[in-house]
Amino acid sequence: MTITNGQAAALVPAATPAAAAGPEHVEQPVAYDAIILAGFGGPEGQDDVIPFLRNVTRGRGIPDERLEEVAHHYRHFGGVSPINQQNRELKAALEAELAARGIELPVVWGNRNWSPYLAEAVREAHDRGFRTLIGLATSAYSSFSSCRQYREDFALALDETGLGDELRIDKVRQFFDHPGFVTPFVEGVRDALAELVERGFADDEIRVLFATHSIPTDDALRSGNRAVDYGAGGAYAAQHLAVGEVVMREVASHVAWELVYQSRSGPPSQPWLEPDVNDVIAGLPEQGVKAVVIVPLGFVSDHMEVLWDLDTEATETAEENGMVAIRTPTPGTHPAYVAGLVDLVLERVDGTPTAERPALTELGPWYDVCRPGCCENVRAGFKPAIAGIAP
Which residues bind Fe-coproporphyrin III per the record (predicted)? Predict the structure, then answer.
């Protein structure tokens, strides 16, 4: 793709000059005009639920009758997903953190699947005179749905608004092992274990379950840098396992733990990552487990997959099997998380050397510019995307 506005032919579409050639880490300072916060989006009333789910599943030909099977999760909560309000709160927290540090970077917010859409955010940024943006997606890990699709959404927003020749958009690195993201989980697990010990449970009677959204096995295998073998489950599983190890090491616990998956939505014939959280919980009593700590490691806030799949279904499964269950908090607007997100932006503003960037696992610090073919969707193929070397 050829970048206009005086830039030469570039490997990375819509990038700033510092990122256009595709370095793994950008170590040149960039004067950004604003942050563009990218969320998943969610319905805000009963009438919004089916239209929202059509947006989420667009291109897959799923009839409304099947969508209604998922809609009851939202209808249970009045048709309102908490995710939009959580993003409003995160935006406000980011603005407060930036102001406290004396950093003049406005925050513009847009969603993938519900208003305000990313195209609206891109248009707003342009109307306010911003031309060089740094993208911040509310997702920490590498996979199609948690990284590449956001990069495609940014590219689509530029195309829909016709602003691809006027705006440059970079994106912060995936932050699964950044201290700001990990710290809230460490605190949550430490507090939960302390509570259970105080209630008389022995270490071998407790199991910590790190839960994340399941994805198709094919997508998992294609997550991350295609030139690296991350093992079964690709970079997506490897990143979660590495963070789980960090958390348990930090709490200095001898309690057993494992990575589990939730919220699968594909047809039974399509392999998805396993084991399912409910299946694991149901099998724990025969291992002598009497209490379970459920850690929503794959999520940045308490949205529907946390409120329904963990707080409702998984907790009920534990109770039905005679176990005590504690679900630990997500980062939300935890001060360490908010400060960490600002730090990630400043890495790019300042051109921080790679060796000086914090990362709690050997997998990081992750790439600023995604590698070729990263996080391919085998069903839909490659689409234009920012912040990565094509395809």
Answer: 81, 150
